[in-house]
Amino acid sequence: MFGKFSRRQFARLAGLSALGMATSARSADSDARPVSDRRPAAGFPKDFIWGTATSSYQIEGAVDEDGRGRSIWDTFSHTPGKIADGSNADRANDHYHRYRQDVGLIKQLGVKAYRFSIAWPRVFPEGTGAPNPKGLDFYDRLLDELLNNGIEPYATLYHWDLPQALQDRVGGWQSSDTSKAFADYAGYVAQRLTDRVKNIFTINEAGRFLNFGYGWGIDAPGLKLPVAELNQARHHVVLGHGLAVQAIRAHGRAGTKVGFAENIAACVPAIDTPENVRATEMATRELNAGILSVILEGQYTEGFLEYSGAAAPKFTADELKIIASPNDFVGLNIYAPQFYIAASDKKPGWTVLPFPVSFPHMKSEWLRIGPEVIYWAPRIAANIWNLDTIYISENGTSSEDKPAADGQVYDLDRVMFLRNYLTQLQRATAEGVPVRGYFLWSLMDNFEWIFGFEQRFGLYHVDFDTQARLPKLSASFYRDVVARNAIGA
Ligand code: BGC
Fold first, then answer.
1. I want to staple 289 with a disulfide (CB 3.0 to 4.6 A). Which of 125, 228, 304, 433 is the partner?
2. What is the pLDDT, as a whole number, of residue 361?
């Protein structure tokens, strides 16, 4: 029946050689190299930082404990109809009480870095004014636990949980009062924690929370502002970042490193030609004009100002200087290719190609699969902004994550996703793109914003009734990559 094929070919077709089950076929075919003879991959740079990430509102729970104030996400998630499964993060992963166990989970992965966020309303329940005396106690305990376990903390100051009081009093980021309040909070945290936290991300994904929360009304605080007001709010956020950088430098220990984490509008050349790469560089600057370009160049691009017209933000030269306060690193959150770019003869010299509906995605529909994005986005960013330290501050995927009959979670799609993205990241570091570390989103399943607990992103499965944590197949996969500091053979 199989007469047409050699045994080796058959084993290949059946996928058996990949499983190491085709030994007899190999011995019948002398040119086949044993797996162990394959050249090892060059791997990641020697001091590459492997990590994982979470955020306060998504995991902590304990929303009424130790004097925490309310955040805009408490209000939003308790508003009927806003969260797909009707849930909220009042309890979430109960990490506030289970952090010791969770640090143990990080340790088991073998990673040496953990990116978490501090909840502003725990520290300043009213957003400004007197700090809550117990506001940093939890983070003190968490930091000690991390350091005792040899894990380097990377703290994010703002992962979207704005104190509700600031939203009520001044309209949140619609006012530059919030930028100033953010800097005061940043300075206070820096003063108190930089004896142990050496790396601080100011703001996570400004692009996301502004568009979704202030533009389209999908995220907290649920506003649908006209473009001019949205642009002004965005300006207040980048100003808040700049002021926070200055406050951290003024109040933190010398040597504290500061940057931000942004979901760069990630552009990929549709076909890798020199013209398309050049076009992709131009597109990246323009499509990130309101955040990355202004922070890293100290000016809004001409294209952005022209395009925005009367809706452009109002700003002063002094503000631009503050916004461009030098960063020590740039964090890029990279999940999906957002724009495939081709060169064009027409102005502005580049064009965005439309996505066919058949373009593949992961469980989350927005999460299109394009591993090459994690090669191109940092390469292009490093080139146009002359960066020397980039972290992939988030990357990961959702999956169905249903335990199988034996109770284990075989998240093969996540393993596939990570394998392909990390292969492309390794390609980037091998070519000298200055990516110094990678934080996998997320350590464990958690409250996925408007999707509630329906979309899982963790390496550990969480049963939200019992709070049991269980490593998925991807946790073993990641542990192996980290241990070998390499992907592929
Ligand atoms: C956010 C995370 C979120 C993840 C997956 C990022 O946009 O920073 O908070 O859970 O993506 O959607």
1. 304
2. 98
For residue 2, tell me if it sits in a domain: no
Say if 280 falls within a structural domain.
yes
Measured over the CA atoms of residue 144, residue 149, residue 150 and residue 156, the dihedral's sign is: negative
Confirm whether 489 is domain-assigned. no
Radius of gyration of the chain (CA): 23
The CATH number covering residue 373 comes to 3.20.20.80
Query: Considering the entire predicted model, what is its pTM?
Result: 0.92
455 part of a folded domain: yes
How confident is the model over 363-394, as pLDDT tens digits?
Answer: 999 999 999 999 999 999 999 999 999 999 99
In angstroms, how far apart are the furthest CA atoms of the chain?
82
Percent of the chain with pLDDT over 90: 91
Residues 6+ apart with CB under 8 A from 1: none
Which one, of 55, 234, 43, lies nearest residue 156 by Cα? 55
**Which is the closest atom of ligand 1 to the Cα of 160?**
9
Nearest CA to ligand 1 atom 1: 205
- Atom 3, ligand 1: residue with shortest CA distance: 448
Ligand 1: distance of its center to the CA of 348 in Å?
31
Mutate to test the pocket of ligand 1, among 158, 205, 262, 414 (most ligand atoms within 8 A of CB): 205
What's residue 439's pLDDT?
99
Helices (H), 252-273: none
Q: How many Å apart are CA 283 and CA 307, to the nearest integer?
A: 14
The domain of 399 spans: 48-484
Residue 293 is given by DSSP the state I
CA of 263 to the centre of ligand 1 (A): 9
- Give yes or no for residue 5 having a pLDDT over 50: no
| Rounded Cα–Cα distance for residues 450 and 85 (Å) | 8
Contact between residue 260 and residue 241 where contact means Cβ atoms under 8 Å apart: yes
- Contact between 395 and 334 under an 8 Å Cβ cutoff? The reply is yes
Number of domains in the chain: 1
CA distance 256 to 446: 29
- What is residue 488's predicted lDDT score, i.e. its pLDDT? 79
Residue range 194-198: average pLDDT? 98
Instruction: Give me the helices (H) in 158-226, please.
Output: 164-170, 176-193, 206-210
With beta carbons less than 8 A apart as the criterion, state whether 291 and 206 touch: yes
Distance 3 CA to ligand 1 centre (A): 52
Q: What is the mean pLDDT of residues 24-28?
A: 34
d(CA 193, CA 157): 12
Residue whose CB lies within 8 A of the most ligand 1 atoms, among 154, 212, 394, for a mutation test: 394
Residue pLDDT, tens place only, 438-479: 999 999 999 999 999 999 999 999 999 999 999 999 999 999
State in Å: Cα 41 to ligand 1 middle: 30
